[in-house]
Amino acid sequence: MEINAFLKNFADLLDDTDAALITQETVFRDLDEWNSLTALSLIAMADEEYDVKLTGDEIKSSNSLNDIFEIIKNKA
């Protein structure tokens, strides 16, 4: 599993955010587009792309996209 592929997949979930702004250090909750629907899309993406069940609690306990990446990587 590669971080750049994960960041691209995450950026694809967003309609109005420039993909260049999406980095490992991005605090996803600070994005204007972040909401409960985006969180559900992230959960679905983790399931479809990585066959990983990401939970709401795991998202809540994470700050950066790297945190989410590490959770998915460790579960894969």
Q: Can you tell me about this structure?
A:
The protein has 76 residues and is mostly helical. It has a single domain (3-75), classed as Non-ribosomal Peptide Synthetase Peptidyl Carrier Protein, Chain A. It is 54% helix and 0% strand. The protein has four helices and no strands. The protein has helices spanning 3-12, 36-50, 56-60, 65-75. The protein is globular.
Topology of this structure?
Elements: H1 3-12, H2 36-50, H3 56-60, H4 65-75
Sum up the structure in keywords:
PP-bd_ACP; Non-ribosomal Peptide Synthetase Peptidyl Carrier Protein, Chain A; 4 helices; globular; mainly alpha; 76 residues
Structure summarized in a few sentences:
This protein is 54% helix and 0% strand.
H/I helix tally:
4
Helix content: 40-55%
What integer value in Å does the Rg equal?
11 Å
SSE topology string: HHHH
CATH superfamily: ACP-like
Largest sheet: none
Q: Terminal Cα separation, in Å?
A: 8 Å
Number of β-strand runs? 0
Unreliably modeled segments: none
- State the name of the first-level CATH class: Mainly Alpha
**In total, how many domains does the architecture comprise?**
1
pLDDT average, as an integer?
A: 97
Q: How does the helix and strand content classify structurally?
A: mainly alpha
**Global outline:** globular
